[in-house]
Amino acid sequence: MWWQQYKKELMGNRTELLFLLGFFLVWTLFLLSRAGVWEPAVVIALYGAPPSGILPLWALWASVQLYRQEWRENTSYLMLSLPVRARVITSAKLAALLTGVLGFALLFAVGGWLLLARTGLWGEVFQRHVFSLIPWEYAVKMSLLTGGAVLAALVIVALVAQFAYVFSRLFSRLQGLVMVWTWVLSFWLMARVVDVGGRLLAFMPDFHLRLLTIHNQVPEFEMVTVESGPLWALALFVAGLYTLLNAVLERAVEV
Amino acid sequence: MGFTRTLILLFLLVSALAVWDMAGGGVGGFAGMVEHDFVRFGGQRERVPLREPDFEEQHSLGSLAGVRRVVIDGFSGNLEVTRSATDELSASYSVAIWTEDRGARTADTAAALARQLTVEWAREGEEVRLQVERPQPLPPGIQALRVMVRLAVPDGVQLEARHAGSARIVGIAGSVRLDHSRGEVEVREVQGPVNIASSWTSVRVESVRGPVQVDVTGGEMRARDIAGSVGGSVRMGALQLRGVEGDVTFSVDQGAGRVEDVGGDVRVTGSFGEMIVAQVAGDVEAYQTFGALKVRGVTRAADLSVRFGDMEVVLQGEGGWTVDAVAELGALETSLNLQREQSDQRVALSGVIGDGAHPLRVRVEQGSARIARR
To answer: Which residues of A touch B14 (CB under 8 A)?
Structure first.
């Protein structure tokens, strides 16, 4: 059932997703044609600027859209009457969104690599003496960690937006206003939970991270300690919000 | 239905709490919520090279007596200066080299490269110059080269360095002048005036007896336990001062500032950031544009201005103030017994608190101010 739901979400939003990916593909091809004509730094800046702004906005828009279309196309009754738990529906919608984000990120990475190679910046940067000192396993690990953190941040933004939309369905009037206020309220609550929860969970062991810094042309690892309390509190808040989203969808929202 | 009603009641309750919380903190409080630190770093940061160097050598330059001034000119590397156990100036240096393949041939190249590095004294009377020539560019097969110079200086010697890299100056008795870029600077337990100009850096000054002047562009400046005055500027960075016996005169442009526990007067200007001034024994003069200004624990005269931002003033102690506060296109809030005059675009508060011994001047242009007493 989950797989069918996931496919339905992907197919339901394929037009917007394909349009966005297509636009990005055309933009990348255009910039590839400018490599060697324009300054390499200009090409890379023009490549990076639109996605860094579009991706979070698209994730926010798409996360609301995934639920909004159920009400707009009168399929919300079917969604709410399906003999499955709400978590199947909500997780399928989140997974569909993440698929889009990952696809976009993959395309961005491949396009970026092509542009860096075509402009000659790849060779220039990575053939420098100091870069060859950086262990590959560290580069891969940090890339995965950074990518994971970005993905987690997008999931949180999407979850809050989805909760705000679903919660606003409990009201018969001023639904837009309720949605925006719920969004603000959720982030306020998150900040307070992280603050208080971080103190209460201060006993949790810290995370240790090796950060790469280059001092005086010599790359070094800086060992930093990250307090884990606020991160555990954040994880608990996100889990709580997800549970609440499922409960609202299952027990409160009516068509 | 019961669940829905409970949810909506909770929603209203949390909404009320949030509005109270956000309104209580004002614009700064709301911004603070947005800028909340979800990831907090703690403890001391420790640095280690990615891997041990493939080639390392140490040399001593011997000792020099009768030196009054040491100048290090244009050195790029790590610098460590400590107090000499004798009356003589001494220096040593080490060179570390990382190679690509660690083979015998590359080892020869590394050894040859180390020989090309020259570190020498040049003496002119009571002044010595440390001249460091490092080979540039690095030959093929060499990935990185690090030079570290260690100096031990006797009491009363002036130190002057133009340097790029990390610098650590600890326990010396004499003046320090550092023109520095790209790296961390630590100056600790120094008796004498300290003057640092640094860019793209992090500067830490601790336990200094003497005036301190630090100008930082792009980076942070932290100082504590200074038995003297502190002055300088920070552009595009952050300032933290705590425990200054003398006066503080500082400007922070495009960054945050925090000045606490000062024995003398404080004169600060700031823009595009938050400035916090707390526990000042002397007079306070502060001017902030495009940002928040929080002055807590005012015990004497204060002249505070803010343009395009919010201000918080907390008076403290048994003394008294003669208040003259004006807000143009802004608001003034207080629970103190002051006379209020209000027109379309101007609000003024005036009156005497306690014995009125100290003047309190507050100016707000397109912003708000809150005056309270603890």
So the answer is: 185, 189
